[in-house]
UniProtKB/TrEMBL annotation:
Pfam families according to UniProt: Porin_O_P (PF07396)
The keyword Cytoplasm appears for this protein: no
Secretion signal span: 1-20
This protein's record includes keyword Metal-binding: no
Keywords: Signal
Name the record gives this protein: Porin
Alphabetical list of SUPFAM superfamilies matching this protein: Porins (SSF56935)
Superkingdom of origin: Bacteria
Matches recorded under InterPro entries: Porin_dom_sf (IPR023614), Porin_O/P (IPR010870)
């Protein structure tokens, strides 16, 4: 942590000296990159507002999220809380017309967690072939890449993306990506080899199969847990009038199967498949985004039935602008109504002894109202109605939660 603070201090010190010598009129928002001509989820890492200092190559930006939270489960509540969800800083620049660097540093819950979520160098050879290496955001689904708070009308991130999939999951590695433009269509792909999962998928405190538990392994930024690379690949196609469809896969060996030449176990695989889609209905300007994922994990037979071999879940967001006109000095002020529907099943299957359904699942619906005084800033109010079943399918725990939050790029 001290090294990170020292690193930030140097950067801001250099910037302050540069600012002191440069006229304030030279500060400007950086233009959108070429790839933003037809923006796709894979462009999210660059499609952000940056502040450039004069003609220096350095671009700086970020966003912040804070909210209030009042929730009660079966009538029991811990009261009202205020939460500083996260503050994220972006640092990037063009080292050459075809060489770019981008990084994303996130502070969660104050400084409870500090993570480098992205730090990669891109070599852009051609539209269809580019090389990326560093700390890479694994492109599984759409949310994992396109997760910035100001882009969403809800304070909470999708449950399937955070409690079933490991949201903002990143690893050290390298790979290739590219795009192909053809009239109304855009084809894109990404393919990376990185460090990956570890035994935390099943050796965790959740008493269930949990991919998010692998995020606790900070050593993955230094070395692989078992010497086996993980592959993540995605193909996406976008029609300028219809929307974007993405299909992705992430998987590999997750267990430590060998130690100093001694075989400990067979190689056990964890595989994730995901489909995502987003579109805008032009006549009403209704925005719809959806994502669904399926997980298959080779769980040892010695583990209890609470550790599911199959999981599935996803979400659908519907956002409808209802009022757009100048308001309180904001010329592009917009009010939206929105709704998110979510479902997660952490244990797909049946009990071997009785052939009865295994539950351990959740359903949630969350209506919301949001106000965007400017496109990059959102104030949002939502109410969550949630039902969660235990492994045996007993009457569900009923949760209601009210949230008021603010998120903005800066």
């Amino acid at each position: 942590m001290k090294k990170i603070y020292f690193f930030l201090l140097i950067i801001f010190g250099v910037m302050s000296q540069a600012v002191a010598q440069i006229d304030s009129t030279l500060f400007k928002r950086s233009p959108k990159p070429d790839s933003a001509k037809v923006s796709m989820n894979m462009d999210a890492v660059y499609n952000r507002p940056f502040l450039q200092v004069g003609r220096t190559p350095l671009g700086v930006g970020g966003y912040a999220e804070l909210n209030t939270n009042y929730a009660a489960t079966d009538g029991i509540s811990e009261g009202l809380s205020f939460q500083m969800r996260r503050m994220t800083l972006f640092f990037g620049g063009s080292l050459h017309r075809k060489i770019k660097f981008m990084s994303e540093l996130e502070f969660e819950d104050g400084t409870k967690e500090i993570n480098i979520e992205f730090a990669a160098i891109d070599f852009q050879f051609a539209n269809l072939f580019n090389l990326r290496g560093g700390v890479i955001m694994n492109p599984i689904g759409a949310f994992n890449q396109n997760h910035d708070g100001p882009r969403w009308e809800f304070s909470d991130r999708p449950i399937a993306a955070t409690q079933m999939l490991p949201a903002t999951f990143s690893n050290v590695g390298m790979g290739i990506y590219g795009k192909k433009y053809t009239r109304q269509w855009v084809f894109a792909y990404e393919a990376y080899l990185t460090n990956g999962f570890n035994d935390n998928i099943i050796a965790n405190e959740d008493s269930r199969t949990s991919l998010p538990a692998t995020k606790a392994n900070k050593d993955r930024f230094e070395e692989s847990s078992n010497g086996q690379p993980m592959f993540t690949g995605k193909v996406a196609i976008r029609n300028r009038k219809i929307g974007e469809l993405g299909i992705s896969y992430m998987g590999g060996v997750y267990n430590k199967f060998e130690n100093d030449g001694f075989v400990l176990d067979k190689k056990r695989l964890a595989n994730v498949f995901a489909v995502d889609f987003n579109t805008t209905i032009k006549p009403t300007k209704t925005f719809i985004t959806a994502e669904w994922a399926w997980i298959n994990v080779d769980v040892p037979e010695t583990y209890s039935v609470s550790f599911g071999k199959k999981q599935s879940g996803g979400f659908v967001d519907i956002v409808q602008p209802v009022f757009k006109k100048p308001l309180w000095g904001f010329p592009n002020s917009t009010f939206n109504i929105a709704c998110r529907v979510e479902r997660v099943d952490w244990n797909v299957g049946t009990f071997a002894e009785t052939n009865d359904k295994i539950f351990d699942e959740l359903f949630s619906i969350m209506p919301a109202i949001s106000w965007r005084p400017i496109p990059s800033t959102v104030m949002r109010f939502s109410y969550r109605i949630q039902r969660q079943w235990d492994l045996l399918g007993n009457p569900p725990a009923r949760t209601g939660a009210i949230q008021l939050g603010i998120s903005s790029y800066f």
